[in-house]
Amino acid sequence: MDGMCKGLHEACGVFGIYAPGRDVARVSFFALYALQHRGQESAGIATSDGHLAYLHKGMGLVAQVFNEENMRPLQGHMAIAHNRYSTTGTVSLRNAQPYLIETLHGPLGIAHNGNLTNVNKLRLKLLQRGVGLVSGSDSEVITQMLAFPQQSNSWEVRIAAFMAEAEGAYALTILSKEAVFGVRDPWGLRPLVLGEFPNGGWALASESCALSTIGAKLVREIEPGEIVRLDAAGVTSTQGQPLRQRALCIFEYVYFARPDSILEGQAVHLVRQRLGEELAREAPVEADIVIGVPDSSTPAAIGLANALDIPFTEGLTKNRYIGRTFIQPDDRLRQMGVALKFNALDANLAGKRVIMVDDSIVRGNTAGPLVRLLRQAGAKEVHVRVSSPPVRHSCFMGVDMATQEELIAHRLDVEGIRQHIGADSLHYLSYEGMIRAVNAGAPRPMTYCTACFSGRYPVPLDEAWLQQRKSRKESFETLRG
């Protein structure tokens, strides 16, 4: 997908487990491994034995952060864990999660996926109370808000009080002295699911694929506005805030979620195939083969190929390890761009009219080089089909996306983009086609956050916060070089 090489990244992956008798740190490690696609910048695990809490986190991929030695001290029967890709705050260990602090009521750990859109107001309130903050992350704000004294010692009351003040996107796993909690914002912007182990114990995860990896069975999704408690009594649920209009990020279906995950009762792989089928109906074209941009576009390419009765084959291979090293390419290698990540299969492409399916084009920095790569391999024609509408608006709900000025569809119309990438033809799936494909297999009609396509944000956006996000984005890009 175009975002893989130029700046659209998943938000974060969160996990929680309450399972006496299990090595919860090891289980958390493999859950994070399954959620690695949601964040590759840092990883962390916090555990508790009911008395003391233990934490290890670091920069890099899960396999780079953890080893047998540093996992050995992570004792206990409950844990929370986190994969991070920064959406607020800079790239540094102090912004890595989970956050773990000591409170009057014992240890408190937080793992957060999302963005608070009124975080400036909440930060000011904490600072006025005399609370010091050490990071630029809104996740630390959540931690300190939960730790602040309330009339009740109940964590459910504290969490509900936070939810009453917070605006924006959050899926949380929370570690206390007695329990693990799962919390989802009232819009359900970011996903969170509940799983059960066959021989006892419970888990929470951003996606069901993590539950499958650790041998837990998907029970259900956490409802928007719900607080779920996992402890010795099992699972208890309270409604922290009333449900607003459902607004799960539709990009979870388009790209973010792993294809083997279940969202809202639907297999993500099948949804992506339907996106390709809709695309075929909207923009048929004569061609010899259909290929997908590996790996996220493969299901949509299969759906389009089946609908047009054109053979699906591989045209591009992806080096899946190029992003798994701290060694940066030199200037000459960096200029090669997508050639570091993709190679063309000349034998499949030579002399062929090719339909290349991608799930999105964000900045347009990858689609053009891929088209040229296909032509260099001998493709006679290259027709680009995109299984989502043009991305014209920035995301402020927990996804690291380009600024509006950097989005190619904000600056150019479809014909301008076609010329920019050098394709023989270009067609994006319509907004209506996307909604139709996503809802076709849903157990009931659903509503989604489609702000990056439509510009309609489900929650209010504070202007001062937006300006701060823009300046942080500029600093962040400078830091990343």
Molecular structure report:
With 481 residues, this protein is α+β, with helices and mostly antiparallel strands. The protein has 2 domains: 3-247, Glutamine Phosphoribosylpyrophosphate, subunit 1, domain 1 (4-Layer Sandwich), CATH 3.60.20; 263-457, Rossmann fold (3-Layer(aba) Sandwich). It has 19 helices and 23 strands. Strands 3-2-4-1-10-9-11 form a 7-stranded antiparallel sheet. It has a 6-stranded antiparallel sheet with strand order 5-6-7-8-12-13, with helices on one face. A 4-stranded parallel sheet has the order 17-20-21-22, with helices on both faces. Helix 6 (138-147) crosses helix 7, helix 10 crosses helix 11 and helix 10 runs antiparallel to helix 17 (431-439). It starts with a helix and ends with a helix.
